[in-house]
Each structure stands twice: as C-alpha cells, then as structure tokens.
Amino acid sequence: MDITIRPIRQAEFETVGELVAEVYLADGLLHGGAGDPYAAVLRNVAHRAEHAEVLVAADGAGGATGTVLGTVLGAVTFAAHGSPYAELAGPGEGEFRMLAVRPEGRGRGIGEALVRACLERARALGLRGMVLSSQRHLLPAHRLYGRLGFARAAERDWEPVPGLALWAFARELA
Length: 174
Prior knowledge:
CATH architecture: 3-Layer(aba) Sandwich
Order of helices and strands: EHHHEEEHEHEE
Shape: globular
Helix content: 25-40%
Number of domains: 1
Mean pLDDT: 92
CATH class: Alpha Beta
Radius of gyration: 15 Å
C-alpha cells in the first residue's frame, strides 16, 4: 500500500471537509441529505484541527515531507477525553470520528490504516481505551472494527439527534 498516514496540512482543510461531507452524503449518513446541519460540522476542518487531531491518508505522491500534497483518499478525527470532539470517550480514553474514505480509495486498507493510526496515537498518549460510534447499517465498518479488537458496547449506544441511533464500540489498549 503506497499510502501515507499523517497529520492534515492547513492547505488541505477545505479538500478534507468536502471529502468527508461528500462521503457521508453518498453513503447515506446525512439523514437530512445535503441540507443536514451536520454537513457544516463535517466541512469545518479548521475547528476540528484546532480542538482535536485530523489525520489523512494521502496517496504515495505526497509522502510525509514532500512538497506535492498527494491525493487525499481518506481522513479521520482523533480526540482524547476532554476534547469538544470526544462524544463518548471517558477519562483515559480516546475516540475517533468522521472516518471517511473516497470511493476510489476503498478496498486498499485505508480505513484500517487510519484506525490503526488512531490506536497508535492513543497509546502514545498513554490512554487505556478507545471508543467510537457507528450507524447500525455500516456492517463492513463493524467487521473492520471487530478485526481490530473493538467490541460492541451497547450500554454506550446513544442518539445525537432523535431517531438517529448510534452503536458504540470500545476496546482496551495494551
């Protein structure tokens, strides 16, 4: 896999915001369609980067230090407990959110690489666990989370807005 996982660059904020919003819309994750208020949250990468960590998966052309940005094929937001972007994480836990991979990047292990990068980041911070929320119908994502050691944590399921039930997944970190 010729993909580099790295922190987002400021010049990529708009591109990544559009990527995440477009993927969520195409995958039916924005229940209000293109006018869903959450689309604006997805596009506001500058705010996420200020209050959490945004990681991108860039096609090999960009590298970690290259001057060419490379094509950004995916992104994820990592937040430790206490961040405005940590919705489920309690003390000693991290959380990842807004995981999105462009359709042309799927099947290349990009989603897995982004999740693994979040797990590594949590370990580096000395966190003891990682949590996430997912919509019930995202079975391929659930299989990925299971392969990476996450288990359903039904007691942490929640609804950010009425009628949108999110399943929680958690795992301990070694």
